[in-house]
Design goal:
The structure is a homodimer of 550-residue chains. Chain A is an alpha/beta fold and 550 residues long. Chain A is globular and about 80 Å long. Chains A, B: Residues 454-530 form the AMP-binding enzyme C-terminal domain.
């Protein structure tokens, strides 16, 4: 039986209308590097978003479902695009300005962006790409920059402020279907082409509510949030939308992402909350050690993107009085997957195992662990499985391009539609996730899994071992078995495989100890310094490794 | 363009699954009056809800959309019914045990409840009704009670614990449409028959998220919530569902709603949050004045249902260190409409005007003020209008009964589907609502409104006036004009209408001053002591008032 409730769609325009009226006085402060920062109220932001939507529709002929790319830092104008584009029924496509040029070109062409909104300070990055961008008709330049680099380009070039000038400050936002796409973001996987996730109005609305729940960021209009995490990195973890829902003020770093300016803006603007990846926080700690600044206004800092060393969390708390909270997610999860607030009632010391976990699942993110034997692993904190998730802000597919069907590669989606995260981990009985391996890095041996990370850590504990990487290799009997590749320290070349094997056998289950061993001069690394096991697997397949079988 | 997000429905069963696993250790404590309270974990509650669902389906033959009535206090078993019934696809119908007998009979028959779950302590209330309950087949008795009063009744009588015994502790909850009805609640309006609101899974899920947002209750698993507000009063303001979403512990008062036991359970169980109507809080204040108890564990208390005197709010804060927050809502709004947290950055004194308002609208509750001239009034804190609201947990109609279409009376719903609340008020530019009148009590005079409440207050400020009630009467020229009915104090019978009129003219706009006056011996009152203007309007229409026209 149908209920009698109103069938009101959950739309980005509703968040905008609310934020720019009820919270009209909340502010977006954008750092300018020198002098006074730029300050703009949510009310003004709403008016400028309406002007921008009018310009896109009336001047540039943008219609429903057109893709609008943004190549921008975190600033007030980017927030205007965040709201104007989806609210008018078009699709916001945030472009990751740190991607290699060829990937940027691929992504813009695949999404078929009609417009690119670009910060003046990023024109040098965009200009060389323009001849390769088939779909792009308009470039909108925000803020000062050397527009001479655009001379001769095929696209029409517009100045953002001139486009907005004289247009109406309200817009009759259309009543869309809440399942319509509102924004898109491409993941840059390590294999294959980047893949696009299409967020819906519904998913963004629900995600914003979750961000404002006490289990997550849980901020109020007494707070100021500093998203150091870029707005092209999964919607700055949902902060721009969430803040308009509750009136949380925003402090935007623009292009000033070095530790010095970050420390300076925290000291002078006194945000209560910040979000970033660990490397930024590590840099900030070093900066503060060198040149102390007061960052005690921060009540809570969220660290996500990759695991945060506990020592860094302790340093923030003990040296600066700043509470750090881990979170886990990915582009495919909007991104909020887990948040590592510890359970209530524990001592500070007993909280640590929970705080260094990836965090706890909220009601809307349903997890399960696909075990190697084809069942689902129990939540006992010990039994590993590949994490699969389901929920209203989890993707079910990737964008198939202008003419194609959505893509559902089977290594990414289970037959019943859950997202396969590619991460292996365990879940405690009370819903805390700890990730241990990437699924492609575990060794599937006779219906059981062997953690390559665990083997590597055990090996590197041996005094003769400089580095060790373990990869799966085919095995007739067991399906897969581990191959240990080892870099010995200088002067330790006389240490043999037998000794290493005996060392391992004392530390891990016997059936997990590798039979195959190879000495290598160095572990191949990716551009960001991670072990590149793809290369090792390739070398093994090509017979380029000198493998000894014990 | 459709997004690529998963199409996962927002269901009550999802909240149950989450609460009974991730927050399995959170507890429901039910007060028993003497000895240890009854304590039950969320995990056990989930198992018992599954057992109950099996009993309903397998033993009683309950199927999709069947209505299950509950005549129960706030206790753990009521929470079990809250989750089991909607999760299995049936509809939970909470029955207000304070309603007059004839209304209870009407409501149960109109909803066509097949089952009534009743606390043993309420059997005396239910038994006399049974012969009139056509649809009810089963009575399930929860807890001890004198079942002899049920002897000879047509319905099968079951013991709740016996029904649950031996049944499976898990249930494969069906994947429903999120727009399906999950629960129903009848409003007991002052005119006409009670009307039923059918909440959906979607509306309850979204409402639960809102309750857990910082703008509303904003509790965590470190909190214990005491819903003094009954679970038959608009789902105890959403608390049972919301707590399962975030692991907030619950303290349930069962039938012990007198100020003494409430004070005692607060002192011994130390809840951090409580919710109730003003009369309960007034009673508690008096109780504490007489016999001091420590209620300082309470961080926040929500008062709703009717306006709370500021003096009471101050008394709680100054005498007991308990922060009080106003909220407004109605059955038709699930009920969360507004929450009176003041804006950030004000002094304690400047917060008061906001705190004594009805509160601020969240993003999901969109308000507008229908002005007397047919336009919508601006949000200037001055221009009144009838409050209309729209949102995903606002009703669009009333339940039409087993065979009928949903009811959409035009005094309750605008042509474009907004709920007409029947309340007249103003909204500030930053979204705070202050209600001034019931719509039926304002006088529509020449396209403007005259507040009867304002006229009454002005009149009662005259030293000769004991009571005054103002009602609208038809007027050929202006549509409606105010009729002032006045009760003079003893010994003040010589005061004339001219003097009262002159007194008013100095205090309110001249065009609002009544021309029609009548002396009456007393203002007719409703059973709860409010002015009964329906009676006055009837007396005027029947020519029973001695009206003087000045």
């Amino acid at each position: 039986m149908l209920s009698t409730m109103q069938d009101v769609p959950l739309l980005v325009s509703r968040i905008l209308r609310h934020g720019s009226t009820v919270h009209a006085e909340s502010t977006i402060t954008t750092w300018t590097g020198e002098g006074e920062p730029h300050r703009q109220s949510f009310g003004e932001t709403g008016e400028r978003a309406a002007r921008f939507a009018h310009a896109l529709r009336d001047e540039l002929g943008i219609v429903r479902d057109d893709r609008i790319g943004t190549l921008m830092w975190n600033n007030a104008e980017h927030v205007e695009a965040y709201f104007a584009v989806p609210s008018m029924g078009a699709i916001l496509h945030t472009l990751n300005l740190r991607l290699p040029t060829d990937q940027l070109v691929f992504i813009i062409n695949h999404a078929a962006d009609r417009v690119i909104v670009v910060n003046g300070s990023l024109l040098q990055l965009l200009a060389p790409l323009l001849p390769s961008l088939d779909s792009v008709e308009h470039i909108i330049v925000v803020g000062p920059g050397d527009t001479s680099v655009l001379e001769g380009c095929r696209q029409s070039v517009h100045d953002y402020e001139q486009l907005l000038e004289g247009r109406p400050s309200t817009y009759d936002w259309p009543e869309l279907d809440e399942r319509d796409a509102a924004a898109m973001c491409y993941t840059s996987g390590t294999t294959g082409d980047p893949k696009g996730v299409l967020f819906s109005h519904r998913s963004m609305y629900l995600h914003s509510m979750q961000v404002n729940m006490t289990q997550s960021m849980g901020l109020t209009d007494a707070d100021t949030a500093l998203p150091v995490v870029p707005m092209f990195h999964v919607n700055a973890w949902g902060l721009p939308h969430a803040t308009f829902m509750t009136g949380v003020n925003m402090l935007m770093p623009d292009r000033f992402l070095q530790p010095g300016p970050i420390a300076e803006m925290i000291e002078s603007e006194r945000p209560t909350y910040a979000a970033a990846v660990p490397t930024i926080w590590q840099g900030l700690l070093s900066e503060l050690a060198e040149k102390p600044r007061d960052i005690s206004s921060l009540k809570l800092v969220t660290i996500g993107g990759s695991a945060c060393p506990p020592a860094m969390m302790r340093a923030f708390e003990e040296d600066h009085g700043v509470r750090v909270c881990h979170a886990w997610g990915m582009t495919e999860t909007s991104p909020l997957g887990t948040f590592a607030h510890p359970p209530a009632g524990l001592s500070a010391e007993d909280e640590w195992p929970y705080r260094i976990s990836q965090g706890r699942f909220p009601a809307s993110v349903e997890p399960r662990l696909a075990a190697p034997d084809g069942t689902f692993a129990p939540w006992d904190g010990k039994s590993p499985g590949e994490l699969e998730v389901r929920g209203p802000w989890i993707t079910s597919a990737y964008y198939g391009g202008a003419t194609g069907e959505p893509l559902r590669p089977e290594d990414k989606f289970s037959p019943d539609g859950w997202l396969r995260t590619g991460d292996v981990g365990v879940i405690t009985p009370n819903g805390y996730l700890t990730l241990t391996d990437r699924a492609k890095d575990v060794i599937k041996s006779g219906g059981e899994w062997i953690s390559s990370v665990e083997l590597e850590n055990a090996l590197m504990a041996h005094e003769a071992v400089a580095e060790a990487a373990v990869v799966a290799v085919p095995d007739e009997k067991w399906g897969e078995r581990p191959l240990a590749t080892v870099v010995l320290k200088e002067g330790a070349e006389n240490v043999g495989y037998e000794e290493l094997r005996a060392f391992l056998a004392e530390r891990i289950a016997r059936w997990q100890v590798p039979e195959r061993w190879a000495l290598i001069p160095a572990v191949p690394k990716t551009s960001v310094g991670k072990f590149d096991k793809k290369v090792l697997r390739g070398q093994f397949a090509a017979g380029e490794l000198d493998v000894t079988r014990l």
